Amino acid sequence: MYLSLYNNSLNGIIPIEIGNLTILHSCLGYNNLTGPFLPQSSTFLHCKKLYWETTISLVISHPNIDYLPRLLHLNLVGIQLSGKIPSSLFKCKSLEHLELYDNHLEAETVPLEITNLTSLVYFSIPKTNISGEIPSFIGNMTSLEYIDLSYNNLRGEISSNIGNLPFLRDFFVLENKLSGQIPNLQPSLQGYGVADNYLVGEIPYSICNLSSPDSLYLSENRLDGKIPECLGNLTSSLSLVELQNNNFHGEIPKSFAQGCTLQSFRINNNQIEGSLPQSLSNCKELKVLDVGNNYLNDSFPYWLVNLDKLQVLILRSNRFYGRVDNSDVAVSFGRCVSSIFL
After folding, report:
1. Is residue 291 within 8 Å of residue 319, measured between CB atoms?
2. Structural domains of the chain in order of their starting residue, each with its CATH number
3. 245 CB neighbour count, 10 Å cutoff
4. DSSP label at 204?
């Protein structure tokens, strides 16, 4: 049975009588329900997917949830969940997808028992008050493809063991208190987010080995060195690059790929020199270009007018020169760019 009471105005305690149903897929999110984590019954014995999202207020009070032997997907996002993660959760051997975003868990760090979930592919616990270091044992969970530990209080370095995960596609630890350098990146990565930490050092050369990256969030750190030239070639798949508010120097990569898929390119507030490469005109999907607060020295880039989808253009606080009062160019920019900061 598929039970969906999603997005109503229901309130009160989840009725225990629900246990008379054999549920395979439960979706109770976006209501005002309260009560224990799961009613004690055979209700969820065959359940494979639980989606209990936002505005449910639950307490993890039941000590055993290992009576969910077939559970594959557990989504408890923004439900004001409180208490400790019950150890019996880690007996759900079939679990592939675990998402606990935006709750108030009592966990000092990622529990070691997570390694018992040998089928886990998707592991997302951002904004859950976890602290401590990123444990190295995560690197032994070789089935993982997606990890999100963002918006917590994690400290220390990013474990190099993360590089042992052969199928990892997405890794996000945004807005923590991590330090040290960015470890080597495995070729399988598509999304990589370490913004808003205290990372230092250069972008590792292993970035050049990424096969089909989609997004790169490195902003708001203390990174330095040059932007790897290979980054231009990676724009055949990259849609978003955020390198702003670091200490990068040198020049922007010269060669942006033919068929460039970039939608947002932000390198503002660095120490970038040289010119704005005209190969950026290959990026026909570009919507946001922010190179402000650098040391770029170039004539005004009239050729950007050919980027029909450009909405935000920020060139301020550089060394651009030349006339900008060409009326035809001004009209053309006005059609496609909603915000221009020179």
Report:
1. no
2. 1-129 (3.80.10.10), 227-342 (3.80.10.10)
3. 20
4. P
In a 13 Å sphere around the CA of 146, the CA atoms on its Cβ side amount to: 10
Residue of 66, 62, 46 whose CA lies nearest to 3: 46
Please tell me the pTM assigned to this model: 0.86
Which residue numbers in the chain have pLDDT < 50? Answer: 23-26, 39, 41-47, 51-64
Q: Give the pLDDT confidence score for residue 52 in this predicted structure.
A: 47
Q: What sign does the dihedral 58-60-66-71 (CA atoms) show?
A: positive
For residue 233, CA distances in Å to 199, 208, 212, 269, 340 come to 25, 9, 11, 23, 27
Q: What is the pLDDT of residues 267-282, one digit of tens each?
A: 999 999 999 999 999 9
In the DSSP assignment, the letter for residue 170 is E
- Per the CB < 8 A criterion, the answer to whether 111 and 135 are in contact is no
Q: How many CB atoms lie within 10 A of CB 308?
A: 11
Place of tokens 């010269």: 254
Task: Give pLDDT tens digits for 11-47.
Answer: 666 665 555 555 444 455 555 555 555 545 444 444 4
